[in-house]
């Protein structure tokens, strides 16, 4: 198979991954890329042409501040579809050389997997860690990770690493051009966060660290920069952590001091213990009524812990929601803003309770009315998405959606979902106003959302779509899709 044919295959894999994960990401697409998938064969040739360009730089990147907790955020890179496909296709080509060199102890972003961030792989890593502890009662466990890992990956060092393991010079040149363009365009550094491609390249960057650990005959597991190490000798674990830290510093990385600890066996087992949750799911599946009480007790203990146990909250809420159990309803309503970094999960739980829809509407209206959502773009987007999914018609939400659409100084991402809210659930006169906003809008993603909103508001001039389908921007595919007159434009999955 020629290099060109291989590259085409990697591009197809990147596209399959895009369709597979669709809206189930931290940054879901406003219409699940439904305007691109039917025309992939035609769009593919355009992307391939750019993929062969050794000097290609990203066309458009928007940094979205994604909350990690109440205060801190991480900058997720929202790539254009073309940029994302090119970046992932190049990374898949790199993975052909990297993946065979990775230890079986590395669980993230293996080239055989389609998902961006696999919960299954994360659980497998923790399961392997529990197996280590179960097999040897004398083992202790050390845990560590890297502070702001992706942001501190040095592109020149990464390029040298890739060359050392046999990655082709043309691939390295293209990646170097892409990543340097990313740094210049975003005034940031390192690898774009939120992309599977970055996870693959991060594995390459940590290969020397993996090899170092193996030299000291230490059992370990790793998912990205989260590492667990096992040995019966505490001094050996401490010495290994120090050596790892020196290896990090040699690559201008910093070990996260607050997250680095050596755990006694009991503490290690508690840290890794998922047995209680596994039993709850098992007995719920058998229809045991007392399992419901166990689930509710787990949720109560999680929210009342100091600090609250977020992992157990993330487990409890969707499980309660699946059962349409409103046990956590009051907490969820009161916590949407204070737990805004978990607002997507909280709102998905509330969506599962249709008998509480009016209370949900009042709460969403109150939050948008009282909270400066320009400083909470993730929360604002989630609120509009939930309102769309639940079909909540509200004059208050409509007014707030118009404020978001018209405010070109705020993050573009929630503006797209605000536009869709207006298109689906606004007033009959909104179509004309949406067209006015479209004509004055410069951001391509917001223009795309406004086009869809105009269609949903039943105010779509066919001539406009005909002109767009003959254009050169990504909007031509949106126009082609809308000209097919779909019965319903999809909303993001979850």
Automatic annotation (TrEMBL):
Any Pfam family hit: RVT_1
Record bears the keyword Phosphoprotein: no
Top-level division of the source organism's lineage: Bacteria
Molecular functions (GO terms): RNA-directed DNA polymerase activity
Domain Reverse transcriptase stretches: 45-288
Entry keyword set: Nucleotidyltransferase, RNA-directed DNA polymerase, Transferase
Protein name: RNA-directed DNA polymerase
